[in-house]
Amino acid sequence: MARQQGAVVFSLLAAVLLCGCLPAPAAAGVHLSTLPKALAVTASPKPGQVLHAGVDTVTVTWSLNTTEPAGADAAYKNVKVNLCYAPVSQKDRGWRKSEDDLSKDKACQFKLTQQAYAAGARRSFDYAVAKDIPSGTYYVRAYALDASGTQVAYGQTGPEAAFVVAGITGIHASIKVAAGVFSAFSVVALAFFFVIENRKKNK
Q: Would you say the pTM of this structure is higher than 0.85?
């Protein structure tokens, strides 16, 4: 009898330890489709305008939609603004794909700014397009965050107002000139040594 009780106790302890070792189920992310589109967001570039990374600036403006009822923004503590790949720049690129689950979304990879939310105010931010922004077509999205940093509302310029960023290829004109000079020098040096070798053989 004692052995049976001991076996039962051992089994219970093993089950408890096993449960403690199992990973907790992944928490579901916030879904964009469930968020109210409560922010009015605009960006300075015109649709289709080409901006150059490391050169141009985007002015982003946001405020609460006038259609929102009073107190709708009571939980808003911060606003985070992101640069998002437009659908045309997501095609055949899984690493840029939009997801309704924001914890899995890969379209809005570039954070432009995060600022405290000002109720009743219209805020703006001037973003100098970073040199590491890849070439592509983009639009702007802003999220309203609560005290825990969770998205509770959003607004965006939308793909229909997308603009183009011409990224830096990494090959500058000075590098091309230097490569050309070295190539020419190599040809001259090769010809020089060829002539010297021939003279030695003739002697």
A: no
